[in-house]
Amino acid sequence: MSQENVKIVRRFFEHFSRTGEADFSLIDPHAVFDNSNAMLDGAVYRGHDGVRTYLSLLREMWEGMRFEPTEFIPAGEDQVIVPFRMVMRGRDEIETVAHAATLYTLSKGKLTQAKAFQSKADALEAVGCGTRAARCRSGPH
Asked: How many angstroms separate the CA atoms of 7 and 69, rounded?
């Protein structure tokens, strides 16, 4: 199931890259998007309406934004860690680049939780993989 989950999370990112919108067919209606560790805001967003609110807030803050995943790391059977570059362009046309990671939890082919982390190392630590992604790829811990 972990490789199938990687494909789902990859599709989620690809859809957002193409459209600037979340693909709600991949998100459980009761999903929790937890940004309490994030650098931009510390809120927790619940359900499809919560995701819409989060995206709306991002659009208010930034003139443009891109999320560029650097890898997709299976973490056990139901989780995927995605370290990424966030490129945000302000209204003054100045770009800001930040690096972060998100831990996605999936069930029955849907994203049920997304937990933001300041770094790949923090996300790996949260699932008990230390700082070595290769340990996560081997299965549940």
From this structure: 13
83: helix, coil or strand? strand
| 49: CB partners within 8 A, 6+ apart | none
Contact criterion met (CB below 8 Å) for 56 and 45: no
Handedness of CA 86, 7, 15, 21 (dihedral sign): negative
Taking the chain (141 residues) in runs of 10, the rounded mean pLDDT of each run is 89 89 94 82 88 84 81 92 86 82 95 94 88 52 32
Structural Rg of the chain based on CA atoms: 14
Task: Report the C-alpha gap between 106 and 84 in whole angstroms.
Answer: 19
pTM of the model: 0.86
HSE at residue 141, side-chain half, CA atoms within 13 A, is 17
- On whether the CB atoms of residues 107 and 78 are closer than 8 A, the answer is yes
**Residue 104 near residue 92, CB atoms below 8 Å:** no
DSSP SS3 for 49: helix
User: Which helix (H) or strand (E) is 30 found in, with range?
Assistant: strand 27-34
